[in-house]
Amino acid sequence: MDALGEIKKRIDIVEFINKHVPLQKAGRNFKAPCPFHSEKTPSFVVSPDRQIWHCFGACNEGGDIFKFLMKWENLTFGEALKILAQEAGVKLEKGSFVDNDWDQKQKLITINQYAADFYQFLLEKHRLGNKARQYLDSRGVNNKTAKYFYLGYAPKSWDSLLKFLTKKGYTALEILAAGLIIKTQGNRFYDRFRSRLMFPLTDLRGNILGFSGRVMDETTKGGQEMKYMNTPETAIYHKRENLFGLHQGHKDIREQNEIMLVEGEFDAILAHQFGYKQTVAIKGSALTQDHLRLIKRLTNRIVFALDMDQAGQEAIRRSIEEAEKFDFQMHVVNLKSGKDPADVLQSKADDFAQFYKDKQTIYEYLIDSYSLKQDLSTVYGQKAVIEAIIPYLANIYNPILFDHYLRLLSEKTNTPGETIKRALFDYRRKQKQGKKDQSGFATTRESDKKKNVEETLENYLLALLVQTSEQVYLLKKAGQELSENDYYSPSTYKLFKLAQSYTETTPKEILEQLNQNLPDELMDSYNRGFLYDLPTGDIDWKKEITKNILKIKKYSLKKQIQELMKSENETALKLKLKELTKVEKTLSII
Ligand SMILES: [Zn+2]
Q: I need a labelling partner for 257 at 20 to 30 A (CA). Which of 175, 177, 405, 575 fits?
């Protein structure tokens, strides 16, 4: 057996995916809300029989364990292969899968690791790190925490890292690709990070992808230097996707089913030190879709503990709409007079504990914060608050939650709930009006729906073929009733043709034959049969099969009749209509 097959044999897909996405048993298969798009009803299916997964929702794609890991961690095939081979304990033949991308990325990660070791050594052991150690101390970060986050110090020198990495055998161009040095116009190189406290930025598994470097004496520099400097975009570091502390926090995030989002590295580090191990930093105030997608895989509850300045508050508001699309439950920690979480934690950790305990749901927080800005004793102030909150309220479809916040807003603004409701309906109507103007909306929906019925019927037929033991009956019946153009997809027709050539054998043998002889192009149809749920209970499968085949015939005939009506071919049309009546009549008596 080849390496791929060996890996698949050793790692069970249900067990593997379940570690990342909690799966529920559903008949022969397992189900979950799709981790790759936002949805409320589960359309992500995993088949233990075929060792495959499929999303029947917006993604409409699927595959094997390799494809899953590639999508989950944004990897190339080669990368996923190496990880799974390691997990399965399968040795890959050298050179059997050449993957330059992977080798290049691995090299950058190794270079970053050496750089981190270098910085870390200076911070912990070298006299050059004295100032940085004092600085950490002044910010309340203890040694254990500094070690846990692998903090370091980049010395005030133009080339000490460059020299160190050159000695390790890397070329300037390789170090440049990792973003650790800068190239001058005169083709000379110098260290990017100088005289800075260094924070390694990692992926979920702890691979160092880049760094964030912070100046320690902002006052003396007169604002000339940026407070934080990051690794530029490289083959491995992408700012939009990176969350500081995710490697350290992901286990607790999953266990507590909660993520606490803070702005800066120090906020996250101190939060961990004080026991809030579910904390990560978004580094700045922009929470991106990439961040949210990543978070959604770990938890559906976000607690914002952002800075209390204008930018932090604006960030919370902007994040809500994006996060609402992903169906997150959101809370806000109000730091009251404190500047940021690091500040509060360092000076009064007990206060922070209280603020955390008193965290408000996002809507309560919004109502409060808008109310503070207005004079609620005037009708204009009341109107301003209601108008600011309505767009958020309009997104709440749960009636219990809706009533709760409506009452809250009504009390705060001293305005009857009915009045607010009317304003809300006005708002929704205007929103809808805006949408209807985009022409052609309704018609595409209609044809989508029809396509779905035909596709569903065919999936059901495939499921009946591979999951029951009535293969012989089904293949015979399909042979009698359905012709090539009655099938929704050509590959299903071909699959049935192939299966029909084995009918001289037992049902079990039919599946075995299919398993052995199935050409790749028919694999998709075959897999669909395993992914589709069959009803459970005491079911007359033969009847179910007949019914489904006739329904397929009915839809096909209707389509043909529509075509014939355009062509004015009276005789053919009459024939088809007669056929349709017969099918419908049979269907009504089964
Ligand atoms: Zn999906």
A: 405
